[in-house]
Amino acid sequence: MKGMSIIVKKVSQLMAGLIFMYGIYIILHGHLTPGGGFAGGAIIAGAFILLILAFGSNALNLKKEIAGSSNTESLAVLMVVVLALMALLFGSKTFFFNYLPKGEPGALLSAGVIPLYNIFIGIEVAGAILTIFLALVIFKEESSK
Amino acid sequence: MIVYILCFVLFLVGLYGVITRRNLIKIAISLSIMEFSIFLILVLIGYIDSGLAPIVDPGGPAQVYVDPLPQAMVLTAIVIGLATTAMLMAIAIRLYRKYKTFDIREINNLRG
Amino acid sequence: MELTISIILGFMIIGAIYALHAKDLLSAVIAMGIVGYGLVICFLLLRAPDLAIVQIVVETITLVIMVAVVLDSTRKELEPAFDRKSLFNRIAAYVIFAGLFYFFLLAIETQDPLGMHSLGMADRYVTGAVEQTGSVNLVTGVLFDFRAYDTLGEAVILYTAALGATTLLRMKGKK
What we know:
The complex is a heterotrimer. Chain A is mainly alpha-helical. Helix content of chain A is about 65%, strand content about 0%.
């Protein structure tokens, strides 16, 4: 599909960077403010969808994009399971135990293993939503040729 | 009490759409409306009067907070609703390319 | 609080009824947006900011995907035929709704009015949660520490949906 006019392209270049940074902020402060992994991951996917809609699918190499997002998502899910299995080695030897030290509540580096879970779940949600959208765009491209 | 009954009326509107509409897109929209009504009724059960949002102030006195357990359940359910709707849309566009219509009765007759 | 949420629910019901009877598919998809965004306002009034953020972003993405599917095809809806089969469907639907409504009224007879402390498990999750999990946000603590299995299941569901969409929308080997 064709892209949009040049005003839309320039404004979306500016806004996509800001939205991406906002998504990272919401993921990292998931244990202090409302938000967390799911909200931040969906916001990051929204930044990428904005870029794809503004520039059109002619300006991208779609096969490489979907390979990249699909591999990223799979690796993130694998890291979540690895983090949960590593809890079998420490502490009270249960699956999903919170084994890293909990600092004082309210600091950024606190709450044990929860910030790591937030980061990996956020990457996974962003990758999954982007893969679904890219599969739809590729299907519309190839079937209208 | 009237809030719960209105939520159930929204659920019944969605169920009416799933039963009687013939267009596949309208069936997907009605399924989504049913899910929204259930999210609202779950969060309504956990609400406490003059309770605060569940973010604790670590140095202050103990307050009354709204119940966080239904909120965690609904958070999971919202993302699952997105996954279901996306799969239904993929099936719908695939059916349209093959049979050139969204009508489920004509697809039933044309099949094969 | 009950009055405000009832008014917003009234708007949502009107939007939902219009979405079912719209003649144009694009209007139906936009009317579904009324229900979704009204839900965001209800979540903000019920002191649930986590849910409001997730619902507003997910609703926008759902609307983008649905418009992408609808715009690519015919937008006219066929006329509802008043033959015997559809009339029988409607009458059966009304009878089922009457039965379901009666059972729902039975179920909420013993429910407390809105705002009273009705769930008993909340005390065990709120008191002592900050020392046990270390996180100040109670919903994140419940999601990732007390109930981490549900989060793992949900990550797997999203992964399966992405896999299923990639497999369904594949054009290799055709023609």
